Amino acid sequence: RAKKLGRNRVEFFAPNLKTELSRNRRIAEHVKLGLERDEFVPFYQIQVDARTGRIAGIEALARWKHPQRGILLPEAFLKVTATLGLLAELDAAILRRVLRDREAWESRGIDVPRIAVNTSAARLSDPALMEQIKGLNIQPGTVSFELLETVFLDDIEEDVMMNISALRQMGIDIEVDDFGSGHASIIGLLKLKPQRLKIDQRLVMPITTSREQRSLIRSIVDIARALGIDVIAEGVETLAHVRLLRRLGCDTLQGNAIAFPVPGLELFDQLVAEQQGQPVRP
Ligand code: C2E
Ligand code: MG
Ligand code: MG
Ligand code: MG
């Protein structure tokens, strides 16, 4: 196997590399290789319309199919990927896979809803972004970009602003991720006019036990309404959540109570079941 891993095999398997630094370097080396070998893949989590229960969208979530350690979650690799300056590359790799999957499902006669990809700030301010995206030939309405709300500050940088309006012109929706956990300003929302905001799961989860938290959700929904923005609730874990969030006016629901993130093959089955009118959901 050392041979397969190629030029860095000495660093990988030297037995005495125990310090934090060398461990990080080892993971880092793996991330680079993993990207080269296409080991990063999207898992998919459906989002449903709060009123009808029909699939309204899908979020693509990065997973690392690590050759030795199995399927790894973002918490295991995002930080080091960012430190290496490879986050934009990871985002690009996931988007390419999403487009490929989408095409494969559509060619089998499936109606695929909009798929959201997570987008790092690094990618959003990359001057090469628009050229890359144009080359991908994305159909309007098929893909949206989730941005952390730190992007939606009052004084948005010019390059980011330009990239966002260019994305919009190509029919790519903008969504604010983890809303309520960062510093989005209402001025920022007004300037960037995202299509949707996703309420952070830490605000959603406590609504079953706290009246205060419920009013908070209602206020966020009101603000979003005033700005013409749709609201997605994340971290919907129980049926009680589903009922409350519907009552509080959220448009779309996402969370383990509805469906877990699954590999593309399983998502395909979910889409088929949906299309045949037999979704398997609570
Ligand atoms: P996020 O975009 O806010 O994604 C939601 C996270 O909550 C996902 O974790 C998802 O699996 C998890 N989740 C979904 N439903 C529930 C629920 O009902 N309860 C709980 N407790 N959790 C739920 P995941 O997949 O581990 O992703 C973590 C974060 O990593 C994401 O948060 C996103 O910020 C980042 N991420 C994921 N994929 C990518 C990517 O391709 N590029 C970039 N830049 N970041 C990514
Ligand atoms: Mg997200
Ligand atoms: Mg989120
Ligand atoms: Mg998050």
Describe this protein's structure.
It comes from Phyllobacterium endophyticum. Residues 24-275 form the EAL domain. This is Diguanylate cyclase. It contains 13 helices and nine strands. The chain has 282 residues and is an alpha/beta fold. An eight-stranded mixed barrel has the order 1-2-4-5-6-7-8-9, surrounded by four helices. The protein is globular, with a radius of gyration of 20 Å. One magnesium ion binds next to loops.
Whole-number radius of gyration? Answer: 20 Å
Quaternary state, please? single chain
Mean pLDDT: 90
List the strand order in the largest sheet.
1-2-4-5-6-7-8-9
| Share of residues in strands | 15-25%
Order of helices and strands: HHHEEEHHEHHEHEHEHHEHEH
> Termini, distance in Å?
45 Å
Helix content: 40-55%
Protein name: Diguanylate cyclase
Domain EAL: 24-275
